[in-house]
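Q: What structure does this chain adopt?
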Amino acid sequence: MRPVLRSLRRAAAAATVALLATAVGCAPQPEESTADASSGPAGRTCAEGGLPTRTEGKLTIATDTPAYAPWFQDDDPANGKGFESAVAYAVADRLGYGKGAVIWQTVPFNKAFAPGEKTFDFDINQVSISDERKKAVDFSSGYYDVRQAVIALKGSKAARATGIADLKDVRLGAQVGTTSLDYIDDVVGPERAAAVYAKNDQAKSALKNGQVDAIVTDLPTAFYITSAEVTDAEIVGQFENRGGTAEQFGLVLDKGSALTACVTRAVDALREDGTLAEIEQRWLSDAVDAPVLK
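A:
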């Protein structure tokens, strides 16, 4: 074969390979690949410090006020103290945003996962992941596995409860919109409708004043309340997870947010490398097990 002809054939073959490679690169990808936590929608990578956030170069994180312990300390989410403050900054760091690039915003608990466009990049406020809430917002993967617990004044009838049946005829209360309230309605099914409060502070005051016999909160909050705020109260017990599935707190994002995959990737990395466990040990180590109510 003549050298010139051989060269032409080689060039044609190389061009064919290049065209095939281009076709493969442009071919529609499986739907799962667009949700891969290593990139955002449409293949957008999780560029550190360069995500499409509300404010360029900044990360806006929301939570409610007051910011309760042990999730936050001194009612100051920005100080990095408390479990959720520490988690928020750890996630921000994974995304490439240092402490100085984080903007904190106050958003009421119920508004965080209500339908409608959000003013934050993500919200962290003990919001449990649920199918119902996913209709209105996006969630990251879970950053904390939680159980609900019952608190009652020491020596009261409610404090002597050893099972769910013993709670049916007591006056129970919880914060509005919480899974704590769901557990009262769906698991206990009390004879009297639960008392509903806008804030946990109001529920605690009602317990102190005898307006309710017991209140339901997440377990770490229950330990903090009984050890530091209502010291004449005690934890009666905790509920089992419904359906054998752990209840988890997740970071809340706008529905269809371009950040969801990247934030999930950050949370997963913090769980895998032990950072979440270290933060939990530091800030929630006192929240040991309580009797299980069946």
